[in-house]
Amino acid sequence: MPEPQEKLWDYDAVEPGQDGPATVVALTAGHIAAYARVAQNRDPRFQGPGANAEHGGALVAMPTMVLTYAPLLRREIAEHQGFVALEDSETARRQTPFAKCEIRWFRPVLAGDTLTGTRRVLEKYERRGSRFVTIRVEASNQRGEHVARYDYTCIFSYARGQRDVPRDSGMAQPLLPGAEAAATASNQGCWLAFDAVAIGDPLAPLVVSESQEIIDRKNELRLAGKPNPSNIHTDETFARQNIFGGTVNSGPATMSYVDQMLERSFPLRAFYDGGRLLMRAITPFRAGDTVTFAGDVTDKRLEGGNRIVDCRVRGINQRGELVCLSDATMMLPA
Prior knowledge:
Layout: E1 23-26, H1 29-38, H2 66-69, H3 74-80, E2 98-105, E3 114-127, E4 130-140, E5 146-157, E6 206-209, H4 212-220, H5 236-240, H6 251-263, H7 269-272, E7 276-281, E8 290-303, E9 306-317, E10 322-332
Antiparallel strand pairs: 1-3, 2-5, 2-7, 3-4, 4-5, 6-8, 7-10, 8-9, 9-10
C-alpha cells in the first residue's frame, strides 16, 4: 500500500482568513532586557525601570519586540488548519523566508503587561514569478487595548532560484550579548524636534556587525510557540539547500537594528503613539557582515493635530550591497 502523501501547507493550500491559535505572554523586565541584548542594543532604557524619562519611568519594550511577544507562528497556522508546514515536511521541506514586514503601533508595551497575539492569513499574491503570503498578527494588552499589529510577508516560492553566496565572506566579530561593554548613551532630551527638523536632514546612523552566535541566540529567544532549532538561520546544512545558499539572520532581527537606529533620533513615543515601520529585505545579512544603517527625513507635516515625520533608512553592507530598505513614520510629541 503506498504511503499517504503529506497534506502540505503550500501556496495552493493557503487561503486568506486561515488562522492560528492565539498566544498569551506575560511580559517581564527580564524578557525586555533579553530582547534588547540579542538586538545588540545596550541602551540602558531597556535594562530596568527608571532609566527611561518617558512613560513615567516605566520599563518599555523595544518597539520591534512585538515580533517576539506576538510571533508569526506560520507552522502553528498550518497545523491549526490541518496541514503540515513546508518547514516541517518530510518529503518537500523548504523554508518560506522573510520578504518584508510593516509594523504599526498604537500604545506602549510595558513590563508587567499580558499580551495576547492573534494571527491570520491576510493575502497571497504572485509577482514576477515569485509567490508571496502575507500574515497579519495583532497584539492586545490585558485591558483589551490594541497595542500593535504587523503584516509579515513570506516567500513561498522564489522565481530566481538560489542566491549566490559572496566569495568574500565577512569577518566581523561583534561584541556578544553579555560581554563587557560601555552602555550606549541614550539620546533622551536630544531627539529631533518637529519645528527644527527639515526634509533632507540626516538621521543618526548605526553600524551593526552580525555573528552566527548572535543569530543563534536570537533564534533561542522564544516567548510563545514551538521551538524551531532547524531553519535557514541556524542549520547550515538545511540553509545551503534553500534560496540564500547558507545561514542568514532573520528579517525580524534586521528590523530590530532599524528600530535601534531610529531610537537614536526619536523618542519611543514617536513609535508607540501611532508610528509605523515598513522594511523590505533586499540582500541577506550573513554572519560576519557589517551593515551601516543610515537615513534621512523625507517629509514632515501636520495632520489632524499630529506632528508627523517620515524617514527612509538604508542598510548597506561592507560589500556596498543594499541589505534592506525601510520607510518609517514617526509621531512627534508637541
